[in-house]
Automatic annotation (TrEMBL):
It comes from Corynebacterium poyangense. Keywords: DNA-binding, Repressor, Transcription, Transcription regulation. PANTHER family: MERR-FAMILY TRANSCRIPTIONAL REGULATOR (PTHR30204:SF69), REDOX-CYCLING DRUG-SENSING TRANSCRIPTIONAL ACTIVATOR SOXR (PTHR30204). It comes from the Bacteria. SUPFAM superfamilies: Putative DNA-binding domain. PROSITE patterns: HTH_MERR_2. This is MerR family transcriptional regulator. Residues 8-71 form the HTH merR-type domain. One of its GO terms (molecular function) is DNA-binding transcription factor activity.
Length: 267
């Protein structure tokens, strides 16, 4: 069979119209997603028609939406008719979902960068200092008396799971901490908390740490995260404190062997 070259595009010409290389087109052929209009029996050269760009665009759109190639067949009937409207509606919906996820990712990244920026001015401080901290929203639960950091990590995981189930987002900065509140008869109410971002303000499960100035100092011992004796000592030293927040400081660099912790005292 002789072909009129003006009626066909070589595999390279066809792919160049959508910036798709020949290797990808051969793969689409192997899986049956896009068969060349003509294959020269002598040279095995592949040829395509301009009208097949619709098929290629369908494949590329499905791949962009995360639909595997075998799933593209659901948009084409047995008679070969392409359900364009259904394809575009699904594409719009999936794209909107991705946009919302990217917005959340951007929010979490900006939160982390803001934390780093705000903490930078207090980096490596060895004295007491006063800093104003923005309003924070937290999920909290009573801290079980842990014996080691593994136990503390297990309780942290439970909070992350709870937040995920409730649809709450947290930052990228390990936003886990300890909240100390004075109880009756000099008792201590110790809670483990997870800071969450932009939760519903009327959600009763959310505890709000108001924007205010805190009297702060830094420690580098992770024992602060799992020692009730330390909690009693902190409140004993800070007689005017109504609550104490113990949390990690997110800085511009991170090392596993250095874990800077900030003790924030509210009076």
């Amino acid at each position: 069979m002789e072909i009129e070259e003006r009626d066909y595009l070589t595999i390279g010409e066809f792919g160049s119209l959508r910036n798709v290389d020949s290797k990808a087109l051969r793969y689409y052929e192997r899986v049956g997603a896009l068969i060349p209009a003509y294959i020269d029996p002598h040279t095995q050269y592949r040829y395509y028609t301009v009208s097949q760009l619709v098929d290629l665009d369908t494949i590329l759109l499905c791949l962009e939406m995360g639909i595997p190639l075998k799933g593209t067949s659901k948009y084409r009937g047995k008679d070969g008719v392409l359900a364009v409207k259904k394809l575009f509606e699904d594409g719009k919906r999936i794209t909107q979902d991705k946009i919302e996820k990217y917005k959340t990712t951007l929010m979490r990244l900006q939160y982390a960068l803001d934390c780093i920026s705000n903490n930078d001015r207090y980096k490596d401080r060895h004295d007491y200092y006063v800093r104003r901290i923005n309003r924070r929203y937290i999920l909290k639960k009573p801290l079980e008396d842990p014996k080691d950091f593994a136990s503390f990590s297990k309780q942290s995981l439970a909070l992350f799971t709870q937040a995920k189930e409730r649809g709450f987002d947290s930052g990228y900065t390990f936003p886990i901490g300890i909240l100390l509140e004075r109880g009756l008869q000099s008792s201590i109410n110790a809670s483990i908390f997870l800071e969450v971002l932009n939760p519903p303000t009327d959600d009763e499960r959310i505890f709000v740490l108001k924007e205010k100035e805190y009297y702060c100092y830094q420690e580098s011992q992770t024992a602060l995260f799992y020692s009730h004796n330390v909690y009693e000592s902190i409140l004993a030293e800070q007689e005017d404190a109504d609550l104490v927040v113990i949390t990690n400081m997110t800085l511009d660099t991170y090392r596993h062997d250095i874990f800077p912790i900030e003790v924030q005292i509210s009076t």
